Amino acid sequence: AVIGVVGLGYVGLPLAVEKAKAGYQVIGFDIQQSKVDLINQGINYIGDVVDADLKQMVEEGKIVATSEYSFIDDVDAVTICVPTPLDIYQQPDTSYVEYSTQKIAEQLHPGMLVVLESTTYPGTTEEVVKPILENSGLTCGEDFFLAYSPERVDPGNKKYNTKNTPKVVGGVTKNCTKVAATMYRAVLEGGVVEVSSPAIAEMEKIFENTFRNINIALANEMAILCNRMGLNVWEVIDAAKSKPYGFMAFYPGPGLGGHCIPIDPFYLTWKAREYNYHTRLIEVAGEINNSMPEFVVEKIGIILNEEQKPIKGSTIHLLGVAYKKDISDYRESPVIDIVKILKKRGANVICSDPHIQSWTDGKEEYETVPATKEKLEHADIVVITTDHSTFDYDVIAKHAKVIFDTRNALQDKKIEHKYYRL
Ligand code: SAJ
């Protein structure tokens, strides 16, 4: 069978590789010709989630990429893995989903399976995708099959990947669910969980990520309160972890990054308004998570005060730009906000990140620098913002004069100089 994957990013590319490895002929579609060209050269531009098999799959002709959507005519099943960002009004922007669906509708043929994988508000599959496809004159559930199946890609996770993570599938009709479940069972090994509708599958994905968002906000609120009470929040959490049931540890951090956890809950907030419901808990959690960069800068100021130094003119060395450890992605990274606030306060900011050579905040380009002994000794304060495994924490503990650790990365190290934690 021939399978199409529309959208070759963090979600689409690993899925395309798994489908090709399972023996399907895969055609990858993307509007960006640059991505199409890189894939056809076997070059993997998403290091965090795609293994080396991409090159082999391309060499064996199992994966072909194109920007020509007319080739959808050749596929039996197509998964839509395009972005569903929030626009500047915090409203879901489903234009990529609509465009891709329109291109599929133009080539829709009897027997075809369409699956939406992009994280989105409950109702998208039935209210946005289904009508566009039925404009082709074909009937959903009879002439073609339509389902929603959320992606669960955890960048940097060495244990769980696209292949071995359970997959939830919800079809518009029972046979839509069956057809989609059959396709995924042939490709993945983590098991398929069938649910009664696309909306259930859309809602459970948002619930998963909102659960993380809110629990991280709780950990962040505990950090803020523990700071005022002079308590070590990391010790509090570790003690709470001794409860073998009914507790799940989340940790405070410099803020909430990535393109999912900070964003997904607000699809629900937007949709809930249609039902006259105000998702208060989600909004308060968002406020707390978004306040962390300011909190980190405030604490940097307090620490420098102890050294009789103002933020203005001090050299502040941030270790880590990526939004979480051991990946190179800095989308929505809280470090971007921290740098912006520190520069506004007149600090001299330098950043190190073994996974990132240069980065941009949308206005300026920044080069990262290696965290050398000299740099660490020279800084007025060294702030650990991302706990990458490849930082040399012995060198940091030995040579940085003042350390502010927002990730508890040095928890078991002997520190030579002054050490503060979130
Ligand atoms: N974070 C904390 N404290 C914690 C956990 C995370 O501050 O205790 C921060 C991280 O540093 C990061 C942000 O939250 O900045 C998000 O981290 P994450 O690992 O939850 O998010 P993603 O976007 O890398 O991946 C998540 C997946 N991760 C996990 O489940 C561990 C999963 O929720 C989804 O499959 C994926 O988003 C998605 O695409 O929805």
UniProtKB/TrEMBL annotation:
Swiss-Prot/TrEMBL keywords: NAD, Oxidoreductase
Enzyme class: oxidoreductase
GO biological process: polysaccharide biosynthetic process
Pfam family of the protein (one): UDPG_MGDP_dh
Documented EC number(s): 1.1.1.136
Family according to the record: Belongs to the UDP-glucose/GDP-mannose dehydrogenase family.
Name used for this protein in its record: UDP-N-acetyl-D-glucosamine dehydrogenase
Species assigned in the record: Salirhabdus euzebyi
Organism taxonomic ancestry: Bacteria, Bacillati, Bacillota, Bacilli, Bacillales
